[in-house]
Amino acid sequence: MSYDLLIKDGLVYDGGGGQPFKADVAVKNGIIAEIGTCELDAAEVIDASGAIVTPGFIDLHTHYDGQVSWDEKFEPSVYHGVTTVVMGSCGVGFAPVKPQDHDKLVRLMEGVEDIPGTALSEGITWNWESFEDYMSAIDFPHTIDFAAQVVHDPLRVYVMGDRAVFDEPATADDIEKMRDLTRKALEAGAVGFSTGRSDVHRSADGEWTPSSEATAEELSGIAAAFKGLDHGVLQAVNDFDLERGDPAAFDREWGLLEDFAAGADGRPFSLSLMQRDFAPKQWRQILAKSEDAKKRGLDVNLQVAPRGIGVILGLQCTFHPFIGFPSYKKISHLPLSERVEIMRDPAFKAQLLTENTEKLAGDGTPIPPIADMLLAQIDFISCKMFRLGENPDYEQSVDNSVYKAAEADGVKPLDKIYDILLENDGKEFLYFPIYNYTDLNYDAVFEMMKHPQAIMGLSDGGAHVGTICDASFPSYLLLHWARDRGGKGSIPLETAVKKLTSELADFAGFTDRGRLKVGMKANINVIDHVRLRLMPPRMVQDLPAGGQRLLQNAEGYRATIVGGVPVIRNDQLTGALPGRLVRAGQAA
Prior knowledge:
Largest sheet: 9 strands, mixed
Low-confidence stretches: none
Mean pLDDT: 94
CATH architecture of the domain at 58-305 and 457-466: Alpha-Beta Barrel
CATH class of the domain at 58-305 and 457-466: Alpha Beta
Oligomer: single chain
Radius of gyration: 24 Å
């Protein structure tokens, strides 16, 4: 016998959290065949000397649900060692769906996850109705593997029609139908079920999402679809109605989530955990409630991010502070170069800075709530608004902020923001962390990540394409927390690898990946950890209908391998497409 692929002389981090060891890793027929001193010949050899060898990373929280139907690359996740993504987070997606509801689901995804509606409308193939049809339609070769969750919003619209979006409780018959459809999808290989209960999440028309006001009876009724199954997870996002000023909202919403988790017959449940500016202590309440629920037998897990979750502001981006100003709205339809030329006119700038923002952007779309918050608190917010630089730095002090730069120039922060966004011919970006950087440090992030119920998540790969670029989270965890940060506020590399691999595989029920062991699927990374670096985010115009999105690459990935086939060599795509749909609960 000879091997198909041999990874030679690497330092192996097997995903279990133990100390690394020097070894070769041999692959045959897409499976890890041997680990140790491998003597047989191989059709292809990868030199891993000076590099680390890890299992392929798993990203538990993405939104490639539409993109997967037309785009096989899974950019930007594929550039960051990710070999398996889970789609269908936060309750939004595109199946099941009736033909007359295509646009309704596009408007939901456009509003909630900032993916251009024109790109979705033109790109999505729509060759499905049921969730089972959807899984079959997307099961064609891609760069990496992917799994899909049943999503609450489309399910509710499919069963309830227009009643789903008019704050009308589901009837017992509605709930039974949603439960039956969820069960069929789970039996066909769906990896779980997700729902969304965030007041920030709105459709592109400003409407509530269908699932946002679902009752406890509805959620627990749908969760009953998991009974008797030995696979499947639940996921939710919830901001606990704090923006409504109801002091009883937290306990009410938490009780509803517990009913949801309890209804699924012991299946694992995960909830997004972030430090929010408008509720800076809420994350500790969630930790306390989660610990108590765990003691009572509920498998509650918390998805956390390894850095601030923030928006990228720029004239090319979906959002910047000036999109609602009357003077800017008059030129917003022009190409970037023409806008920049006009905005460089001192008279134009002087006029714009006397104005107030309006509720609609130049294209008539509602301006997101963040705009009012940003402009109302611009002095405070500009204290944590930064240039990322050529080697993006996400953990900066107030001394590097826009506020301090404005102070040094003797101008107001909004004036300084205006000037910065015109730099680099209008292609300059500013980074503003909304979550996880309330105190201008990573203390909360570090505490969250160390919590025993924490799992890595929240990258939102494929979503917020004009404002956020967080699919680089895996690379960031390795280079910042496990290499550069140092001291007591760092994470051992073997722990970081475990957090990106076996912990997530165990949570999601992926028994064939997440560890480097003989007999496991050969999803593997070879990483030059010493030279690993993030590249700055960049805007590209490659979506259908001319849509644009932010991408971010990395340097240091000597190889990323899916099923024994390299899809990345020296940080570049190889063109190989070995990735396929992972059907949970079914044989690999």
